[in-house]
Amino acid sequence: MKISQAPAEKPTAVLVLADGTTIYGQGLGATGEAVGEVCFNTAMSGYEEILTDPSYAGQLVTFTFPHIGNVGVNGEDVENASPAASTASRGAILRAPITNPSNYRAQLDLSVWMRRRGIIGIAGVDTRALTALIREKGMPHAVIAHSPAGQFNIEAMVKRAAEWEGLEGRDLAKDVTTLQSYQHAETGWAWNVGYGNQNGSGPHIVVIDYGVKRNILRRLASEGCQVTVVSAQASYEDIMDKNPDGVVLSNGPGDPAATGEYSVGVIKQLIANKVPTLGICLGHQMLALAAGAKTKKMAQGHHGANHPVKDLSTGKVEIVSMNHGFTVDGENLPDNVEETHVSLFDGSNSGIRLKDAPAMSVQHHPEASPGPEDSFYIFRRFVEGLNKAA
Ligand SMILES: NC(=O)CC[C@H](N)C(=O)O
């Protein structure tokens, strides 16, 4: 069975990097072109969650796991909470062609689902070599084109990739955030039950949506919280009008430093007024900025569901879900910021706590989705803190 090689003849898709590297393969999903930064994700499962995670806006995802699509798509494991964020990642790069879906939850073939969501894919790529290249040279800018007729203008694609503005300095949260505030009651997924529903009577949490993953909302609801989601552009007054017991700063795409123009001011007010705050991923980076720390672009980023992180307060190691291309500079934290978690892959910062405000944040994804549930405790720690304060 020939499953892993790019067809030598009649390619229907091509991946072109800004340096001119040209890789032919088979087209999947939507036709047309997508431009973005290529990152690699090492998760072995969870492609439906990954391809709907709004944090991937502006990126093209290479899956290092060779068989993607085997269990189809179920339409339930979708992470974008806002319709505005329905085109998170614009492209998927796969090793093997997609086989017939086999899973009791499967509703659709991955390629058909990608076509409906406007995601362009290419299979037959030597993803191992591409990943090795990213590790050596950093995340390249690239264009994927899918043309059933096999017509490509490589020169124009190289130019487009080379001229693409990149993610540094880009605020993408404003493109994926909800425009209106709403309540969220859905809880976690359980075998034979599906997602639950609960109108919690616990603390009221306002989540600022910079591109929030649904499982963050579900984890909060599962902890008994009442959950209200507000737009990334909500002012401090908008938020406080809702009477929150705590505020969650969500994940999201783009450069935290650029997103900070409207959000960091709000976060500074939350800290100054001692509003209990939990930041996740982009929210973590922006809490750090608000507290006086710095963020910077990483060379290869962290994207996967199998990263070891150490909780410095307990000494425990947890295996976590990661998805970030920017990082908080853990070497130069201001005095009021304590490092609470570190990545055991490269020692980069993976969590902070403010010494002068009830605020904490993590770079990794405690909501998993996809990934292990080791870090669900972060939500519990936050909610227990609120209950103690009440
Ligand atoms: N998942 C996220 O929130 C990503 C945060 C940020 N956009 C980064 O790439 O680092």
From TrEMBL:
The keyword Nucleotide-binding applies. It catalyses: L-glutamine + H2O = L-glutamate + NH4(+); hydrogencarbonate + L-glutamine + 2 ATP + H2O = carbamoyl phosphate + L-glutamate + 2 ADP + phosphate + 2 H(+). One of its GO terms (molecular function) is carbamoyl-phosphate synthase (glutamine-hydrolyzing) activity. L-glutamine binds at residues 55, 252, 254, 282, 285, 323, 325-326. Keywords: Amino-acid biosynthesis, Arginine biosynthesis, ATP-binding, Glutamine amidotransferase, Ligase, Nucleotide-binding, Pyrimidine biosynthesis. Residues 11-145 form the Carbamoyl-phosphate synthase small subunit N-terminal domain. Pathway: Amino-acid biosynthesis; L-arginine biosynthesis; carbamoyl phosphate from bicarbonate: step 1/1; Pyrimidine metabolism; UMP biosynthesis via de novo pathway; (S)-dihydroorotate from bicarbonate: step 1/3. The keyword RNA-binding does not apply. Its EC number is 6.3.5.5. Signal peptide: none annotated. It holds the Pfam family GATase. Belongs to the CarA family. HAMAP family: CPSase_S_chain. This is Carbamoyl phosphate synthase small chain. It comes from Hyphococcus lacteus. The gene is carA.
